[in-house]
Structures are given as structure tokens and as C-alpha cells.
Amino acid sequence: MHIVVCIKQVPDSAQIRVHPVTNTIMRQGVPAIVNPYDLFALEEALRLKDQFGGKVTMLCMGPPQAEDALKKCISFGADDAVLVTDRAFAGADTLATSYALAAAVRQISREQKVDIVFTGKQTIDGDTAQVGPGIAKRLGLQLLTYVSRIAEVDIENDRITVERRAEGGVQVLRTAMPCLITMLEGTNEMRFAPLENMIHAARYPVRKWSKEAAGIEDITKIGLKGSPTVVSKVFGPTPRAEKALMQSVEDASPRDVTLNVIQKIFTQHPTLERDILAKATV
Amino acid sequence: RNLELPEHLKAYKGVWVFIEHDRGVVHPVSWELLGEGRKLADTLGVSLAGVVMGGADEALDAIAKEAYTFGAESCYIVRDPVLKGYRNEPFTKGMTDLVNKYQPEIVLLGATTMGRDLAGSVATTLSTGLTADCTELRIDPATRALAATRPTFGGSLLCTIMTLAYRPQMATVRPRVMQMPDADPSRSGVIVEDRLAMIETDIVTKLLDFIADENNNKVNLAYADIIVSGGKGMKSPDNFKLVWELARVLGAEVGATRPVVQSGWVDAERQVGQTGKTVRPKLYIAAGISGAIQHRVGMEGADVIVAINTDANAPIFDFAHHGIVGNAMQVLPVLTETFREHIAMRSRKAA
Ligand SMILES: Cc1cc2nc3c(=O)[nH]c(=O)nc-3n(C[C@H](O)[C@H](O)[C@H](O)COP(=O)(O)OP(=O)(O)OC[C@H]3O[C@@H](n4cnc5c(N)ncnc54)[C@H](O)[C@@H]3O)c2cc1C
Ligand SMILES: Cc1cc2nc3c(=O)[nH]c(=O)nc-3n(C[C@H](O)[C@H](O)[C@H](O)COP(=O)(O)OP(=O)(O)OC[C@H]3O[C@@H](n4cnc5c(N)ncnc54)[C@H](O)[C@@H]3O)c2cc1C
């Protein structure tokens, strides 16, 4: 079984700060990590490999530094890694990103037929959840998004059955491989990388593909040029006009403070009082 | 990069909303989007339509009728046995065929697991722009293009995105971000029926089963009228019971911040914020919550926010309406008791 897992290198958003005056992202010193959602996809791929044998190939589009993210995945047990990296890809929105990644998957499948492509549910920076569906459509793969469990893989007949998170329940879907799965978070736990894997990963020669090597046919479809969306403005959230009405239990008893708050909100919002009276259980 | 709209795309007119329904229930986000779509259509001076796709035995006409009451002037209905139960392939085909035939300039979908799945594949098939998880939709006066604003970097910044040289312009919006419009039962509209050029044997993916969530109707945080939320300032799962107690008295739902969910004090479905639910209750009581931007973006649409925090400089007080500076472990029981008395008194009066 040959599985391709797409990962994105993202800034560790827990550590991102926004400049209070210029409203720009302060990236300096913010470590880059593997998009946390993608690790659920990788772990699922590794489990399929444990079970059925085969190979897991990592794929990432990004700047040269993204090599580190791919090495991290090698340390967890992935077999091979391809970094699609070229200035021409800069400024890509999701449509242009899925075009480039689809071309690279096609290229990888020329080396060895691909059975499943995995992506994460979404990233923590762009956060659109659009790249997975985009790659699937471009490659004509069956699309399975928000997969919470892989129920059954029938290698002989190239069939797979999964559970997919939907509103109010779970869909059980059966489809044919090759397919593209976007893996839901919290569905598994990433394994530890043993020391020898880390050493192997550090030395691993990640393959770097330019746009030519990645098999890009139409250069008007990649990067900024191939992106229909235009970011027209970036700005900070507007502060609310007035600050909260503040009271402190230092100045009055908790009882007086809470009475005061309740009176105020019910005077200002009489319908709220009615709603509460209708529902409350005293 | 060419940002001019090519001549052949200028014919694209009108605003569409994908009406999401599953097993007989329309997702309220569709009505919220019709409310928003109505404003966009009025600004542009074009019409607003709903798109309803579903199985042969589903009440699609009734859904269309309801869509009119929320502002749609027409509904495109695609009725076919293969459209019973959502699957990507036939829905993508149905939607892209409709768009190519009738050429709307704007297509809006809910940012649900169905809407995002469909939007992503429809936009790719049509080779057009798609803006995810928007919190505000406007028409840019200079270009008459859709200016879609979304939070980025966990909500610390907002950015406005436009699709200038491609049509349609597509966007997804989360449930509860837009206000629910008032239904006007006197409104009506017209139905345009279309066929799906696809049969079951064309479709590779089969829907074997749907397992409904057991507690489906128990936690509906996004649509709760009153929410009592607790943060890490509650200190322990034991103290967190104070949050539940106030919620019980008020008939409210319980919400929480991400660290509370990560500590396992409450289920993940109760998380409010950027990576949790967006809520829009009439009353939101926040106890021991700092008010980080990722939490704020999920709840600042509440009509009234009451915050309890020991730190008078906590960010939550920048956007709460009523702030109580104090220890939640001390204030919450008193607040619960005061509410209880007030309710008891008022109920007696009403009786
Ligand atoms: C603040 C901000 C807002 C944006 N808003 C939009 C928008 O509304 N519409 C739009 O079209 N573009 C938008 N973009 C651009 C978009 O983020 C980029 O196109 C990005 O390359 C991919 O999108 P994503 O991060 O949303 O990925 P998602 O679609 O959320 O990613 C899903 C999965 O696809 C895979 N994947 C994504 N990117 C890569 C990659 N480079 N290499 C390998 N695998 C990958 C991963 O497995 C990931 O888990 C935005 C960018 C930023 C920074
Ligand atoms: C990508 C990303 C996504 C995120 N998504 C979300 C999300 O969806 N939802 C979310 O909530 N967070 C989210 N976060 C986390 C967010 O940044 C904050 O860390 C989180 O909201 C803080 O939770 P908190 O207020 O409970 O805890 P803390 O920040 O620890 O704040 C505790 C507060 O309680 C107060 N306090 C302490 N003791 C008491 C007491 N005895 N009585 C009263 N008050 C007391 C303190 O003064 C403090 O203000 C996200 C972060 C990232 C990086």
C-alpha cells in the first residue's frame, strides 16, 4: 500500500504575537512546526502501513526551511519525503496550492501507484480546510472529509469503509481507492519517535522539487498568478466603544454586587428575564 | 496578475445560498445566510435564490417555501434519488451544473462539515475563489465585488478577501456568526426545477449508514439562549461544578475555554471560540475566563456578557458589558443564589 501524506509547515500560533500598533504579525523567533492537525493524518497512515505493509511518502509545499517539518515526519516513521519548493509558488491561495500539490502527487504516483492521499482537517494558520477537497477534485479521487475512523480496508478489491463526522451524527461511507482522506483531529495519538529514527531523520535526504520537477504544466495556475482570491486589507479587531460596568467585591458585598448586576441586565433586557423565567428550574 | 473581470464573466448575476438539510431538518445557518444574502442582493440590485438539493421523497418544496419567508425570491431545486443523504460527488455535480447554467455572481454556504466539503470541491471544479469561515460580508462599492472578512491567526487579526477576476465569488460562513433574520410568512417565490445528469451507478462512494449522535439534542451550544462558561480560573473540576449549578438554575448550557477542555473537565463540544463553537446567546456569563482573542471571537456576538475575574485588568473586561472583580468561587454561589431568589420571586408574582 502506498500512502501520500500532505503536511504544511506553520508558525506555532500559540507563540504568535501581533504588533499592537502596525497590526502586523511578529514572526521573528516564532518556531515553525508541523501543522498539528496533520499529525493525525500521519499517524493514521502509519497505522495502515503497520497493518498492511507498504510505504508512506510525505509531501509538503513550502520554503526550503520546511524540510525540517518533513524530517520530523520521517522520525515518526514515514519512509520518504518530497518538498515542493520554488519561488514561483509564493502567494498561492488554496486553488493554486491544490493545483501544485495535485501535480506533485501525480508525479509521485508515476514512481509508485498511490492508494490513499491523506491531509489534515485544516491548518492552524490559513485554516480554510479547502486544500484537501481541492487536491481530490483535481486528481479525480474520491473525497472523504472529516474522517473519524477507518473502519475497513479491503486491499484485494481496493475498497475502503470510513466513518465521517457530519452534523448531528456520523456517516458510514464505502468507496474505492485511490481516495483522499482528510483526517479529523483527536482520532488517534501520535507515536513516539525512537532515538534511532531521529538520527535517521536528521540525515534523511529530503527530495526537493522545483516547479519543473513537480510536473507543473501550466505556470499561470500556481503562486499568486494562479490565485483568484485577493487579500485586500488586514486589520485589528475594533475595540468596543464603552468598557464594562465594573464592580468589585472589594467595595461591596458579593450579594450587593450580584443583585446590582441582575437588576441592571433585567432592566436593560426585559425579554431576557422572560426567557429565563420560562426555562429556569428553581 | 490580472484583477479585471473578463468580459464573459460580467453576465454572472445574483446571489445564491446553498440550503443545507439533512434527514428532514434544515440547518439554521442556511436561514442566517439568506438574511445576509438579502442585504448583499439589495445592495447590488440583484435577486436572491436558494439552492435545494435532495432525494425524490424529501419535502424540498416545503424547504423552498420556508426559504422565501427568509428572503429568497426563487429556489433552484434538484430532486433525484441519488441526492438523498449528502455525498460529495453528486452534490458537486448538481451545484456546478447549476452555477454553469444560471451563472450567479455570489454563492454562499455554511461552514459546516457539509458546506465546507461541498464548497471546496465546487470552487476547485469551477476554478474560482473561495473564502473560508467569514465573519462579515459586504459589497465593495468601487468594484461591486464581494468583500469577505475572516479572522486570521487565531482571531488576532482580520483580513478582507475579494475574488475580482473570477466568478462566482464563493464564501463559507460559520453557524451563528450572522444574525437569524425574521421570517415573513407573506413572502413567496418561484421554483426552478433542474435535473441531475447522474445515476447511482456513476457514483463510486456509497452511503452505508448514518449513526445519529446519542446526545444530539442535548448540547446545542451554538443555538443556546443562555450560556454559563468557565475558564482555567475555576482552578479544578470540582470548582467547575459551580458553573453547572448556575447553568441549571438558569436553564442554560455550559460552555468552556480551550484549556478547560484540554484538561478534560468538560467535553470538547462545549468549547467556545476560534477552534470551538461560535455562540450568540442573549446572556453569556464568563467565570475565570481571561478573554483571549481566540475565545472572544466565539462569543462576542452575545447580547449581554457578564464576566467574573479576580484580575481587574483581564482582557475580558474590555468587551464584557458587566464586570465583577472577584473570586469566582466566592461570587458564583452568591450569583446563583441571587438568581434563584429573583426567579422564585418573579415566578410567584406571575402566578
Ligand atoms: C490569514 C490567511 C487567510 C487565508 N484565507 C484564505 C481564503 O479564505 N481562501 C483561500 O483560498 N486561501 C486563503 N489563504 C491562503 C491559504 O492559506 C494558502 O493557500 C495555503 O497554502 C493553504 O491553505 P490552508 O492553510 O488554509 O490549508 P487547509 O486547506 O486548511 O489545509 C488542509 C490540509 O491540506 C494540506 N496542506 C495545506 N497546505 C499545504 C502545503 N503547503 N503543503 C502540503 N500540504 C498542505 C495539509 O494536510 C492540511 O492539513 C489564507 C492565508 C492566510 C495566511
Ligand atoms: C490556534 C489557537 C486556537 C485557540 N482556540 C481557542 C478556542 O477556540 N477557545 C478558547 O477558549 N481558547 C482558544 N485558544 C486558547 C486561548 O489562546 C487562551 O489560552 C484561552 O482562551 C485561555 O483560557 P482561560 O481564560 O480559561 O485561561 P487563562 O488564560 O489561564 O485565564 C484564567 C483567568 O482566570 C482568572 N482567574 C484566576 N483565578 C480566578 C478566580 N479564583 N476567580 C476568578 N477568576 C480567576 C485569571 O485572572 C485569568 O484571567 C486557542 C489558542 C490557539 C493558539
Describe what you observe in this structure.
- By secondary structure, chain A is of the alpha/beta class.
- Chain A has two domains: about 1-220, Rossmann fold; about 240-280, no CATH class.
- Helix content of chain A is about 30%, strand content about 30%.
- Chain A has seven helices and 15 strands.
- Chain A has helices at about 35-50, 65-75, 95-110, 130-140, 195-205, 255-270, 270-280; strands spanning about 1-5, 10, 15-20, 25, 30-35, 55-60, 80-85, 115-120, 140-155, 160-165, 170-175, 180-185, 205-210, 230-235, 245-250.
- Chain A has a nine-stranded mixed beta sheet with strand order 11-10-9-12-8-1-6-7-13, with helices on both faces.
- In chain A, strand 3 and strand 4 (about 25) form a beta hairpin.
- In chain A, helix 2 (about 65-75) runs antiparallel to helix 5, helix 3 crosses helix 4 and helix 6 (about 255-270) crosses helix 7.
- The longest helix of chain A has 18 residues, at about 95-110.
- The model of chain A has no long low-confidence stretch (mean pLDDT about 95).
- By secondary structure, chain B is α/β, with parallel strands linked by helices.
- Chain B folds into two domains: about 5-200, Rossmann fold (3-Layer(aba) Sandwich), CATH 3.40.50.620; about 220-350, Rossmann fold, CATH 3.40.50.
- Chain B is about 30% helix and about 25% strand.
- A seven-stranded parallel beta sheet of chain B has the order 7-11-6-1-4-5-12, with helices on both faces. In chain B, strands 15-14-16-17-18 form a five-stranded parallel beta sheet.
- The longest helix of chain B is centred in the C-terminal third of the chain and has 23 residues, at about 330-350.
- The complex binds flavin-adenine dinucleotide (2 copies).
- One flavin-adenine dinucleotide sits at the interface of chains B and A.
In percent terms, what proportion of residues of chain B is strand? Answer: 25-35%
Instruction: Kindly report the oligomeric state of this protein.
Output: heterodimer
- Segments of chain A where pLDDT lies below 50 for 5+ residues? none
CATH topology of the largest domain in chain A: Rossmann fold
